[in-house]
Specification:
The chain is of the alpha/beta class. The chain is 33% helix and 16% strand. Strands 3-2-1-4-5-6 form a six-stranded mixed beta sheet.
């Protein structure tokens, strides 16, 4: 039983030595879900090795733009106008994250938003690993009706007070993570830790900034620009073969975190004459991922189809010498 495993984990002799020494449970509220969206608030609960709370911290962040779906997060332009900019709170945020595993519900999203903000500020987040509580719930086979935060909270009897408030969501997650962590320790479960690769390059596309009179109303077309790449002019020559060159026209897909901002990496591929694909099919020539053991749909399909896989570093080297498309 889960309760028995949790009680066993409370014994000092039962704790796995390989488990992390501390965690930063994080929630960020944002102006939206896209690349150009910004963080507007952040909550962090610092936990010790066994999931006990050490302290917590919360901040608003001025996104310098429309705050997005106010009806979800409740943060208006008037509230955010006097909030600090991200670069002004980056040092304090770093102090909360430093040396700890970042824990979040759908951790890829929170990490990518945080990494982008640090890249804009020309800094690097001191995070090397992340843990997604959705993945941990699956590892523990928790009997949840779905993998929403409210379902995980209800399973452990944690009461939500202010849904979509960064500090309260972080609190709820911290309280649900503690028994999950103990159950994992008691059962000898390997934690689903993933590497966090900080962004090393960043360029902002045109996004309307704050005007003197305020951010204006929320209109999707006013702040989220379309991103449409030109069609690749070359035919697909087939799959990439290990040890050979990439060839113009090859279809390349990307999955997971990249140390170079994804759009910049895709731009380089397009400029080299490759076809950047948003999905993976039997026609895909190559999948680029730094996490080939992840369970993303692209990685799963690559295994099914036998699509070649390389990491970002190898892809960067291949981009330096792309074979021209065949004439005729």
């Amino acid at each position: 039983m889960l309760e028995d495993r949790m009680r066993a984990a409370s014994s000092p002799t039962a704790w796995p030595a390989a488990y992390p020494k501390g965690y930063a449970v994080v929630d960020v509220e944002t102006t939206g879900l896209a690349r150009d969206d910004r963080i507007i608030s952040a909550g962090v609960y610092r936990l010790d090795a066994r999931g006990e709370v050490e302290d917590h911290w919360y901040t608003l962040v001025n996104p310098e733009r429309d705050p997005g779906p106010v009806w979800i997060h409740g943060l208006t332009s008037d509230v955010l106008e006097s909030a600090p900019l991200f670069h002004e709170i980056a040092e304090e945020f770093s102090a909360r994250l430093d040396g700890r595993v970042l824990v979040a519900h759908n951790a890829v999203f929170d990490w990518q938003m945080i990494a982008r903000e640090y890249a804009r500020a020309e800094r690097e987040a001191p995070v090397r690993q992340r843990l997604c509580t959705i993945a941990l719930s699956k590892e523990l086979a928790l009997p949840l009706p779905n993998y929403k935060l409210e379902a995980l909270a209800a399973h452990f009897g944690v009461v939500q007070q202010r849904a979509h408030h960064a500090l309260d969501d972080a609190r709820v997650l911290a309280e649900a993570f503690r028994p999950s962590l103990r159950a994992a320790a008691a059962g000898g479960v390997r934690l689903p830790l993933h590497e966090c690769r900080p962004l090393t390059e960043w360029t902002d596309r045109a996004v309307p900034r704050q005007q003197a009179a305020g951010y204006g109303s929320y209109r999707q077309t006013s702040w989220r620009p379309a991103r449409k790449r030109p069609a690749c002019p070359y035919p697909n020559p087939g799959r990439y073969e290990e040890g050979k060159q990439l060839k113009q026209g090859m279809r390349v897909a990307f999955s997971g975190d990249t140390s170079i901002e994804r759009d910049l990496l895709e731009d380089r591929a397009t400029e080299a004459g490759l076809h950047v694909a948003t999905s993976l099919s039997r026609l895909t020539s190559l999948l680029v991922t730094n996490d080939p053991d992840s369970g993303t749909s692209k990685v799963v399909k690559a295994r099914q189809f036998g699509t070649p896989v390389v990491d970002e570093a190898a892809f960067g080297q291949l981009l330096g010498d792309v074979e021209p498309a065949s004439e005729g």
